[in-house]
Amino acid sequence: MDMSVNVPIDNPDADTEWNDILRKHGVIPEKPPSPTPVIEEAIHEVRRLAVENRLEGKDLGELDELEDEEDEVFLEKYRQQRFAELATISTASTYNQVYHLQKPDYARDVTEASHKSFVLVHLTSSLGTNIESRLLTELWRDLAFKYGDIKFCEIRADMCIEGYPEKNTPTILIYSDGDIKRQIITLKELGGQNTTAKGIEKLLLDIGAIKSNDHRFVRKGGDETEPPNSKIRKGALADDDDDDWD
To answer: DSSP labels for the chain?
Structure first.
């Protein structure tokens, strides 16, 4: 008759010769590997990336200021990287303005054009009192000039889509590869009448129209100041007559 034997085990996780014998005979399970090497490797990788990427987002002027602090070869590598980025952006910057659309040309100027680059369409209000729409028009001008590789367009909503509700303006349509990738109705989710260029830039980042290390997007020196169109946002121009919006 087999009789079970109670083997004394004080601490199965302890590194003792007795526990090693017990593990060898399957009395207690193998001790899991220590997480310390994995943690140390992760910390080392984080530090390595922090060192390698310490110059990310710096423009050419800032790189020149670091000549006495950084390794010359390492610094020159980043200079050449910046030159290459600027050349790529310059080549792709074929728009640099807001395009005012006509409905018959919509397919060509928007859908087909989106196979070459992102196309953002602002469906504007027909009323001059729509502050959000007027604000977005101003932001569109600034962003179109800044991001010439993205096509910014405008068309009055009711001229583009018959019966389009005025309450849904402004509306932003984002096209890429011939399809609408995103639709934003009014500026509510972007900040309403407090929407800024920085908020739209974050949208461009989210949809993949710009990269996080794009020197045009990276901000230096804190929060964005009040935009030049703040008078519109505050409604100071709401009562002005503007023939372009009639």
So the answer is: ---------S-TTS--HHHHHHHHTTSSPPPPPPSHHHHHHHHHHHHHHHHHTTTTT--HHHHHHTTTTS-HHHHHHHHHHHHHHHHHHHHH----SEEEP-GGGHIIIIIIGGGTS-EEEEEE-S-TT-HHHHHHHHHHHHHHHH-TTSEEEEEEHHHHSTT--GGG-SEEEEEETTEEEEEEESSGGGTGGG--HHHHHHHHHHHTSS-TT-TTT---SSSPPPPTTHHHHTTTTTTS--GGG-
Over residues 134-176, the pLDDT tens digits come to 999 999 999 999 999 999 999 999 999 999 999 999 999 999 9
To which residue do tokens 């220590």 refer?
34
Say if residues 144 and 138 touch (Cβ distance below 8 Å): no
Residue 221: predicted pLDDT: 41
Contact 54, 69 (CB under 8 A): no
Is the CB of residue 178 less than 8 Å from the CB of residue 111? Answer: yes
Rounded Cα distance, 146 and 148, in Å: 6
Cα gap 122→133, rounded to integer Å: 8
User: What sign for the dihedral angle of Cα 82, 85, 91, 92?
Assistant: negative
Residues 216, 146: contact at Cβ < 8 Å? yes
| pTM confidence score | 0.57
